[in-house]
Amino acid sequence: MIHATSRLTASVPCTTDEVTIHHSHPFAVGEQDRNQLRRFRGRMVSPVSIWAASATGSRAGWTLSSFLVANGDPGEVIGLIDEESPLADVLAETPTLTINLLGWGQRALADAFAGLAPAPGGPFALSTWQDTDWGPVLETSLGWIGARLNRDPDHAGWGLLLRAVVERVEIQSDPADDLLCYVRGRYRSLHL
Q1: Residue 6: DSSP 8-state
Q2: Rounded Cα gap, residues 57 and 97, in angstroms
Q3: Across residues 24-41, what is the average pLDDT?
Q4: In this structure, are residues 191 and 178 in contact, taking their beta carbons and an 8 Å threshold?
Q5: Interatomic CA distance for residues 16 and 102, integer angstroms
Q6: The domain 37-190: what is its CATH number?
Q7: Which ranges of 2-161 does DSSP label H, i.e. alpha helix?
Q8: pTM here?
Q9: Which residues are within 8 A (CB) of 139 and not within 5 positions of it... i.e. 6 or more apart?
Q10: Does the pLDDT value for residue 10 go beyond 70?
């Protein structure tokens, strides 16, 4: 039995006979009600990137792990973004973008561009960016792609499907950081 006395009501004791600790999340959805496709996707390791663009003096970026790089002549990059994101608005005004690959030490930056963490002055103020012909490039990225969009965006599921031709690729020859990945709702690192 637990007895506690509040400072505000010193004369009235608080008593409880039972304390429970859940072995799982108390509000979790039952196994049969979970979206199986989402669970499957959650078991796939995805690299974390920031897709960025600039037009008419404004910059926008979005954290993205739902993307694919397709080798070919020309190579392409395909990604899914939220069509209500600031990046979608800027991409309506420019045909180019950058894909910046993030390292383990850039988790806070990924959260800021995803809108999950505060970013005083905006997320671009949290790191150093260089302007290129394709858009902003994160100076400390593990590598980046400069690409030109196919101007006919489509939808896939609930996302805006972007398809772009790769025009430039820059990678660090000896990265000092591990690759930032996302799997099962958490960040993980992968040694390169």
Answers
A1: -
A2: 14
A3: 78
A4: yes
A5: 49
A6: 2.30.110.10
A7: 36-42, 86-91, 107-113
A8: 0.82
A9: 127, 128, 129, 130
A10: no
136 is written with which tokens? 């902003």
Domain assignments of the chain as residue spans, ordered by start: 37-190
Q: How many Å apart are CA 65 and CA 110, to the nearest integer?
A: 10
Cα–Cα distance measured from residue 189 to residue 99, given in angstroms and rounded to the nearest whole number: 19
Is residue 150 within 8 Å of 74, Cβ to Cβ?
no
**What would the mean pLDDT of 70-98 be, rounded to a whole number?**
95
Q: Which residues contact 168 (CB under 8 A, 6 or more apart)?
A: 132, 134, 145, 146
- Structure tokens that stand for 37 in this block: 């496709």
What amino acid occupies position 25?
Answer: H
Query: Residue 160's Cα: distance from chain center in Å?
Result: 15
DSSP 177: S
Partner residues linked to 182 by β-bridges: 46, 187
Q: Encode pLDDT of 129-140 as tens digits.
A: 999 999 999 999
Tokens of 106: 């850039």
Neighbouring C-beta atoms of residue 148, cutoff 10 Å = 16
Per-residue tokens: 73: 């002549």
Supply the Cα-derived Rg of the chain in whole angstroms.
22
Question: 């965006």: which residue's tokens?
Answer: 153
What count of Cα atoms within 13 Å lies in the side-chain half-sphere of residue 159? 15
DSSP string, 79-94: EEE-TTSHHHHHHTT-
Binned at pLDDT 50, 70 and 90, residue 39 comes out as confident
